[in-house]
Amino acid sequence: MTDDLKAAGAQVFADDRAHVFHSWSAQGAISPLPIAGAEGSYFWDYDGNRYLDFSSQLVNTNIGHQHPKVVAAIQEQAGKLCTIAPSFANDVRGQAARMIAELAPGDLNYVFFTNGGAEAVENAVRLARLHTGRSKVLSTYRSYHGSTSTAISLTGDPRRWANDAVGQSTGGAVHFFGPHLYRSHFHATTEAEECERALQHLEETIQYEGPATIAAVIMETIVGTAGVLMPPPGYLAGVRALCDKYGILYIADEVMAGFARSGAWLAIDHWGVTPDLITFAKGSNSGYVPIGGVIISEKIRETFKDRVYPGGLTYSGHPLACASIVATINAMREEKTIEHAAWLGEEVFGPELRAMAERHPSVGEVRGVGAFWALDLVRSKETREMLVPYNAAGADAAPMNELAAAMKARGVWPFINFNRLHVVPPCNISEADARKGLAALDEALAVVDVYA
Ligand code: PMP
């Protein structure tokens, strides 16, 4: 490693600490690693350390870093047209919208583009409120929907409350418990029981809140940040049926689960259910240029045929981002990324992680599908006590910090949230790299087994 490169890294760090205000952090308590570059499933720092990215950053680089076809499409578009207001028609914007509509279920034929996931949630909720003339929106306690005001209010992740003494939440958000058999709120012992009781609980919540006041239920198809929670068979169809019964819209949040992550184009494809609105972002272009959006059904679009939709964003349908969506969908088709992610889940991640759960006393449960997995780490398999509590800080958080350090020391970058280690590499990671990362995880788990 040359001294020049090390000096460049030191300058990156100095500028960051002097002027960058970071997300989700106490500003004085962090030490962000300066990153020099990335390619495929790897990124590297200025000191010559290479990391296998088992986090896909924030679970967004579904097609890996610097995919040449996506980079080329952005470069080509930059040479043609970098920006044009959303009020104009534009070639790549129309193509991206058509391609997304084609892979969405039912008659979800229209796309409203945003700059990311939280704005997609904000606009899905506004569309639902304006369409129904109702204000409340129901979401699950275990969820993450973004950190803008409506999105954070809907988020059920306990992080949301950590610093909320000043009341950052907006009105109209009502929470309920979704199904989660391993930590069941319904004292269920089978998936069928959990499904039935969770649906009963949702229906009671709807009745207590008053169906005529509820615009929508929003739900991550597979709950992501809050634990990779797979809905039991029949649950999402049951939610659809309850929404239909009470005239409530069903918003599927596919910001994390969509675009190959679950081994399907959209996670909802696994269950054959058609929501009224779908939000997307992250994997749609791996985040190379910020973009997200809402996929909208015919009946909701009809509401705004003669009536103005009172919302918009300067960069809605940004040409560089839309060109990268077109290139991403084409690349995923050509390279069979969906099939590869599904295969990895069935043949590599599923069997290997379940085998680790047998070997390691700290691994309470393994959940997931495709390239979307979580280990629920515990102090005791019997009591299922979480290895670290929600919002753990300082000494309480030590076990998970030690696990992260043990993985990084083995060249694998982890995604950790509370007591969970998520295995969420790029969906096109090679089998060899997937097995390499899993071997590092297997070794690293020894540092938390001592707490179990
Ligand atoms: N919804 C879900 C399901 C998410 O996982 C996220 C981001 N983790 C968001 C919404 C918010 O997306 P963004 O960070 O792009 O605003």
| Number of separate structural domains | 2
The level of helicity is: 25-40%
SS field, number of helical segments: 15
- Helix-strand string: HEEEHHHEHEHHEHEHEEEHHHEEHEEEHH
Give the ligands present: 4'-deoxy-4'-aminopyridoxal-5'-phosphate
Counting helices, strands and paired strands, the structural category is alpha/beta
Question: What's the name of the CATH homologous superfamily of the largest domain?
Answer: Type I PLP-dependent aspartate aminotransferase-like (Major domain)
Stated plainly, the CATH topology of the largest domain is called: Aspartate Aminotransferase, domain 2
Your description of this structure?
This protein has 452 residues and is an alpha/beta fold. It is built from 15 helices and 15 strands. The chain has two domains: 33-66 and 336-449, Aspartate Aminotransferase, domain 1, CATH 3.90.1150; 68-334, Type I PLP-dependent aspartate aminotransferase-like (Major domain) (Aspartate Aminotransferase, domain 2). The chain has a seven-stranded mixed sheet, sandwiched between helices. Strand 11 (363-369) and strand 12 form a beta hairpin. Helix 4 (91-103) crosses helix 11 and helix 12 (337-359) packs parallel to helix 14. The chain is globular, with a radius of gyration of 22 Å. The two termini are 40 Å apart. The protein binds 4'-deoxy-4'-aminopyridoxal-5'-phosphate. Residues 58, 116-118, 121, 144-146, 220, 224-225, 253, 255-256, 281, 292 line the site of 4'-deoxy-4'-aminopyridoxal-5'-phosphate.
